[in-house]
Design a protein that fits this description.
heterodimer; A: mainly beta; four-stranded antiparallel β-sheet; 54% strand; B: 113 residues; mainly beta; six-stranded mixed β-sheet; five-stranded antiparallel β-sheet; 11 strands
């Protein structure tokens, strides 16, 4: 059974560019999460979907970060415009939901904004 | 909401020694607890899931203890080896029904030969 897949694995962007990160959750999972991971801030939740509905829109990340889930097997995270402080690893995770809480993480996308 | 504090942020031990990482949480209604391991350059890998009904859980080379009274969760690596060198994160389920996980800030473990 395939795990969570994320593409690209690495992304380099110029300041001000728009980038789109992609995630495919584990087949059959109902919940999908986007996190940002940095050494200083640790794991920060960006967005959370349950059965494709947006449950958490990221609070402080709302202005330039937009996650979408157009179908149950695909999600995107758009950052527009990018800033150097967005340089981080972006992790996608999925969960069966419905009382099963463990999240399974993808390999992540390492974003560098110059 | 739930808050999770993880200690220590960095831990160095010699091969064969034990290593203990501890998390404290605030919500007494929390029921599910998790430990994740993140090796360098890799993603988070689920190490163990713990229910609040069970206080001691043993895995391969480690033990997880849950003290509900003190709201403390600990990961004890017995006889650590260099392959255990990684970042470890605890996570606690949000009891409000959102099924989100609240993560600790992580512990970077280094096991020296």
């Amino acid at each position: 059974d395939a795990g969570v897949t994320q593409t690209p694995r690495h992304e380099v962007a110029e300041k001000g560019q728009t980038i789109i990160l992609k995630c495919e959750p584990v087949s059959g999972h109902n919940d999908l999460f986007w996190y940002r991971q940095t050494k200083i801030q640790g794991l920060e939740l960006l967005s959370y979907f349950r059965s494709k509905s947006l449950m958490e829109d990221g609070g402080a990340f709302k202005d330039r970060f937009k996650a979408e889930m157009l179908n149950s097997s695909f999600s995107t995270l758009k950052i527009q415009p990018t800033e150097p402080k967005d340089s981080a690893v972006y992790l996608c995770a999925s969960s069966l939901g419905q009382g099963a809480y463990e999240q399974y993480f993808g390999p992540g996308t390492r974003l560098t904004v110059l | 909401g739930e808050q999770v504090e993880q200690r220590p942020p960095h831990l160095s031990v010699r091969e064969g020694d034990s290593a203990v990482i501890t998390c404290t949480y605030t919500d007494p209604n929390s029921y599910y607890f998790f430990w994740y391991k993140q090796e360098p350059g890799a993603s988070l890998q689920l190490l163990m899931k713990v229910f609040s009904s069970t206080e001691i859980n043993e895995g391969q080379g480690f033990t997880v203890l849950l003290n509900k009274k003190d709201k403390r969760l600990s990961l004890n690596l017995t006889a650590a080896h260099p392959g255990d060198s990684a970042a470890y994160f605890c996570a606690v389920s949000d009891s409000s029904g959102s099924w989100q996980l609240i993560f600790g800030s992580g512990t970077q473990l280094t096991v020296m030969p």
